[in-house]
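Q: Predict the assembly, please.
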Amino acid sequence: MSVEAKETVMGNKNEFEPLIVAFCCNWCSYAGADLAGTSRLSYPANVKIIRVPCSCRVNANFVLRAFQRGADGVVIAGCHPGDCHYSTGNYYTRRRFSLLTNFLEYVGIEQERFKVDWISAAEGNKFATVMNDVLEKVHRLGPNRKLRDARWKR
Amino acid sequence: MQRIGVFVCWCGTNIAGTVNIEKVIAAAGEMPGVVYAKDYQYMCSAVGQNLVKNTIKEQKLDRVVIASCSPRMHEATFRKTAKVAGLNPYLVEVANIREHCSWIHKNKEEATKKAIALTRAAVAKVALNTALIAGEIGVESRALVIGGGIAGIQTALDIAEAGYEVDIIEKSPSIGGKMAQIDKTFPTLDCSACILTPKMVDVSTHPNINIYTYSELENVKGYVGNFEVTMNQRARSVNMEKCIGCGICTDKCPSKKAKSEFEEGLRNRSAIYTPFPQAIPNVPVIDREACIKFKTGKCGLCETVCPAGAIEFSQEDTKITKKYGAIVVAIGYDIIALDKFGEYAYTNHQDVITSLEFERLTNAAGPTGGKLVRPSDHKKPKKVVFVQCVGSRDKTERGKTYCSKICCMYTAKHAMLIRDKYPDIETYVFYIDVRTPGKNFDEFHRRAVEEYGVNYIKGMVGKIFPDGEKLQVHGVDALTGDTIKIDADMVVLAAATKAKEDAEDLGRKLSISTDTNNFFTEAHPKLKPVETHCAGIYLAGACQGPKDIPETVAQASGAAAKAIGLLSKDKLVNNPCISEVDEKICSGCLACTKICPYDAITSKVITFNDHGKITKRVVAQVNKALCQGCGGCTVACRPGAIDIKGFTNKQILAEVDALCR
Amino acid sequence: MEKIGLKVRARAKEALENREVDEVMGWKKGEFWYDVYPVFITEANEADDLIWDAFCVNNLSKYLIQKQKENKKVGVFLKGCDSLGFNQLLKDNRIDRDQVVIYGLPCVGMVDPEKVKKEGLNKGLLEIKRSKDEITFVTKEGEKKILGRQFDYDKCLACRYPNPVVYDELLDTEIAREVSEMDRFKDVEAIEKMSITERFEYWSNQFSKCIRCNACRNICPACSCEKCVFDNVNAGVSSKASVDSEEQFFHITRAYHVAGRCVDCGECTRVCPAGIPLDQLNHKIMKDINELYGKYDAGVDVSQDAPLVTYKLDDADSFTEHGKGGK
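A: Predicted assembly structure:
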């Protein structure tokens, strides 16, 4: 094996491959992600989306579990306030996760690792931008060890 | 152990171009519970669906994962496929490896890895899926149309003609809306009243249509097929049954200083008034804020002169509650206030008017009898300047970012009407672009320029200010760069259209969403233009976005067709992915009831046999017909006693775990 | 407090004799000077066992849940902090107001036995008597009086509701004591000033002390679920292994579940055998709620909607750039 090739192997091994779990509401943000696809926009493959009916379906448990299982960042995306498919769901999301955002930071989780945002079905561009932005920040922070369950191998 | 089948779609090269299908198939075969994995070029095609169907039967599959395009695209398709093969449709999950994967990522290795991860999450979820059975609900065969403008009128007529009962609720004292105020219509220049008023009469005489004017929607309960609507009918102070519409009261009324809404404030009206002569119903209403009797207790002249004894000062608002199967929202639009556009001097000069005011000025039934005169001194103008895009296509706070769509055409119409009646009046139009898509629209605009000699100037007006009897209009010709100064006698501003002030509030009552401009959001911008996200509620007209009359009427008929389709059903199938309470775990704190947008959760008392001791406890219960499955309650529930079928806590956690591998 | 103790006994006796209630809940003296435990009495003669002293720190309201299920009418003694917990239980529908008679007890503060021990005053101690802020230490050798609040629980020193906010009868005159809101969240501010790494270290050290005994959960008037989510197998989070990540999960979730519901009685911190400052978690959320959505004190006004089950159209948020999620 040449020196160069060896370096590449080593490099790959050490390369940080972040994992972002994104919870997207079916009506706006998931559709926004679809639109990002239809528009052939690009964001890294590290972002993996879970579909939920509404952002108000996302339990804080899900966020914590994702961090436990090795996610380096978690995103919750829903319709813009006022545009909720279920009319008021995301108003609760806004309160619940405003508190959780602050609280996680209080117990020592970097705020950049947990992002809530409003992305409409027409905002494919915003979807890609938000994901790229989160990924870039998480990249800078490096792998998340906090809250992580050491027994779980990813 | 489950028998899960995984079907991976190539979508031609859409997926297969970036995702190594073979590797996905191989990886899927190794996933827990998967007994069969197969690919095909187009899984949604008849051949693809047959493959799924046959495999379900042959391999005795009890769950299916389709790795393909977005579930928003074909989830329904594959659920049907499963159903035909004898599998409960809710035992199907879709892994979105197209929109969320192959179309996003260029690197084949990465995309393949992600496709495998997404498939693994779908497999993990489907393993926890349970067979769900959709319930059935009845349909109330009556429709409600909110708004009595041309959109509401057309919708109501179409639904009524199909044989269903329709109620129209209109906020103002008469139906007719904006179209009743308009003089002529483009591009044919036929008289607006001549085509609208017969329709108004049709509505009022149709046996299937009830009109509630001077009424507002108060609240809406229920769900598709079974809405329960409460409206508030404001006190008219005139008995609708007794009134014969003779108009003596309005003539004799001594209070004549209120601004006529119908005349855009260009004329005064009496306190007891009928908005316009062709109003339907032709029953006056007392404006209690202007009425002397209501203000001071003295007067009551109308009561004295009324030959029918129809005046009832003691009338009170009445609440009406009725059930409807479908609702069509047709509340129309308004134009923006121009107080923030100081450069156009609208607020401080009478001869700067809006286009809607111009409609009244040029209307034969209007305040001047159709004679074009300046509102300030009633002199005939010599030069009239039209300014387009006042607040439209305006990115600043005071304006609207969108194109109001109708202004180019009506401005051409206005200029043409002036030139037709008074060839000696010069007309100038300042525009950014002239937008005339539509049947015979561009021809219409060309006629204004070529046949009627309307001067079009590409450019915006910078300043308008009074100069003696004249109005100085300063602008720039964007094509030549020259400064243009016109000493006009009158300026007409094409003010931007906007959503009704109460649109957002109404949207909240109806649980339908509004966009950033407060126009109602259609369910799909292309394929569901009249539906809303709330089943059974449809949109017609300019409340969904700026529209001209032909488009409004077309959409109204579309909304009517959708409503008729719904009303013609005996039973509806509802979404089975709804909340469910585990009574053993529920503590009865009822936090869920507080946040439910549909009031679908109530409480009940249950008795428990706790080791021989009978105890009682309050628990939550879900109304299956009301629940829409948002899942907000599941998060409000701390112990996890309420869960949502199809998106259970365990299913979502399983997806999280599967993605974190 | 002794005079009020007489009233406590007399009122309990009367209530049971007249069958105003089926049961009375109060406190009883145990073996040691600091030892007081809750009792439920059904007979008038048992009322003589009831006491009211500087160690009646236990909140009795949570026991009402079980009594309500049995359809019993219960008389209960509640202090200021207890009454907040009572209201929270009422709000959570766990008890029926009509089935409870509350005998309110204004409270000057409870004595922390640990602070007494720290000063070495526990040697030969037989009894501690309290009258306002005067503490009398009774030993075989005689009595010693100390004036001041230096032996009060920390949570009592920060007490904002010395008088019950809900009661049917008040057994003592209301206490007028100035309460300062100034330093209410100084514990939170101190932690907020730490770097993110320091904060994580601080909290992981705290959480790793947790032995998952559930004392915090059992004592808490806001943690009143029939079955806790950590015991609900279907919720999928019932992990209880003694590993850092699960302890972190538990504590974040516990604090989050009492968000907008915690009445700040400080009982969780008091009972934690590992000495985890749980109140610092609760305080953070209270502080944020006050800042984001306006002042809210759980347990004070039952008719007010809790912050997490309501919303305003123009609520601020803490995650978008402009802080306003509106259109």
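The CA atoms of residues 28 and 79 of chain A lie 5 Å apart. The longest strand of chain A covers residues 20-25.
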